[in-house]
């Protein structure tokens, strides 16, 4: 990435990339659902695509009010209080004002490993959660950078996006499993032409490989949104070096995050199961981009900010 990188260029590039990936994911869901029905009832292939869309809509309604509470219960979090967590609440209030969104509820996990995440449905139903290890090991500027990163996930609606993508992948996997459980013999075919046989073969191949593609797309979107949240946090705090310092401390901390599990690991600011991979977390299946790359981009933003200040004061 060029040293001329700016906050706004970083944000715009990530939004474009995410839009393309989301479009691919939804197209994949529509194709596999439509193909599923076409294999058995060619005249009603559209019912599959429509049914998948309805399922996503129902999930929206269920998760709007209860999604965040489910995650907090799973993580064993408690609500932050003014008496015990004054600095955290003050920082959250400052960043919420800077981001132009309502102050989210703030929760704390009693765990000595430093980490944090955001969850919820929208800025009106959002939660930021940090560990006690984060509060103990980061200074105020670094904590502000982490809270700004999580607040960015809320302002950019990443929290809703990732819930939706998780559901989409789940539906695709369920369709694949149901397809092979029912069997590969269509109940009715309009004709036995060579073209129809090719269509059937394509549908079978789609059922086999669609879950893999869906997972790869979901991971790519997750990594992209982490970069976007970093850039947005730098924009909110005007101090990208503080978030870079925080990421470095979190990634190098040797203590395991016992509150994390496979269902919640993608939500944390640094993958709690990839601490050792500080330089090597580059797999296509990774939920987070390499921490080293995130730090490098933040340092570049800080460098450009310092340079502009020097130019204006010289």
Structural description of this entry:
With 314 residues, this protein is mostly helical. Helix content is 66%, strand content 6%. The protein contains nine helices and four strands. The chain has helices at 7-40, 45-75, 86-99, 132-137, 140-155, 158-182, 194-237, 240-252, 291-313; strands spanning 78-79, 105-109, 116-120, 126-131. A four-stranded mixed β-sheet has the order 1-2-4-3, with helices on both faces. Helix 3 (86-99) crosses helix 5 (140-155), helix 5 (140-155) runs antiparallel to helix 7 and helix 8 (240-252) runs antiparallel to helix 9 (291-313). The protein is elongated.
pLDDT below 50 for ≥5 consecutive residues: which ranges?
A: 276-280
Content-based structural category: mainly alpha
Distance between the termini: 27 Å
Outline type: elongated
What's the quick description here?
With 314 residues, the chain is mostly helical. It has helices at 7-40, 45-75, 86-99, 132-137, 140-155, 158-182, 194-237, 240-252, 291-313; strands at residues 78-79, 105-109, 116-120, 126-131.
Q: Which characteristics define this entry?
A:
mainly alpha; four-stranded mixed beta sheet; 314 residues
Question: How do the helices and strands line up, and which of them pair or pack?
Answer:
Elements: H1 7-40, H2 45-75, E1 78-79, H3 86-99, E2 105-109, E3 116-120, E4 126-131, H4 132-137, H5 140-155, H6 158-182, H7 194-237, H8 240-252, H9 291-313
Parallel strand pairs: 2-4
Antiparallel strand pairs: 1-2, 3-4
């Amino acid at each position: 990435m060029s040293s001329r990188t700016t906050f706004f260029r970083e944000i715009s590039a990530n939004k474009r990339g995410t839009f393309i990936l989301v479009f691919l994911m939804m197209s994949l869901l529509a194709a596999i659902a439509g193909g599923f029905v076409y294999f058995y009832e060619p005249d009603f292939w559209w019912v599959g695509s429509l049914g998948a869309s309805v399922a996503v809509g129902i999930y929206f309604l269920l998760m709007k009010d209860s999604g965040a509470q489910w995650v907090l219960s799973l993580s064993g979090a408690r609500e932050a209080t003014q008496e015990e967590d004054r600095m955290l609440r003050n920082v959250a209030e400052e960043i919420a004002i800077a981001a132009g969104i309502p102050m989210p509820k703030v929760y704390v996990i009693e765990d000595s490993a430093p980490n944090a995440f955001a969850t919820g449905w929208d800025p009106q139903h959002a939660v930021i959660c940090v560990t006690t290890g984060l509060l103990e090991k980061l200074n105020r500027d670094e904590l502000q950078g982490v809270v700004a990163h999580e607040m960015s996930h809320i302002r950019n609606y990443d929290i809703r996006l990732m819930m939706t993508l998780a559901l989409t992948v789940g539906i695709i996997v369920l369709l694949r499993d149901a397809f092979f459980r029912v069997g590969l013999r269509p109940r009715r075919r309009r004709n036995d032409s060579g073209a129809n046989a090719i269509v059937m073969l394509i549908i079978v191949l789609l059922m086999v490989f669609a879950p893999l593609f869906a997972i790869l797309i979901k991971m790519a979107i997750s990594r992209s949104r982490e970069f976007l949240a970093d850039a947005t946090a730098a924009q909110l705090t005007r101090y990208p070096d503080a978030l870079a310092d925080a990421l470095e401390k979190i990634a190098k901390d040797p203590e395991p995050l016992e509150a994390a599990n496979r269902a919640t690991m993608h939500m944390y600011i640094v993958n709690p199961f990839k601490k050792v991979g500080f330089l090597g977390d580059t797999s296509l299946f990774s939920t987070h981009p390499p921490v080293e790359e995130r730090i490098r981009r933040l340092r570049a933003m800080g460098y450009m900010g310092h340079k502009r200040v020097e130019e204006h004061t010289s």
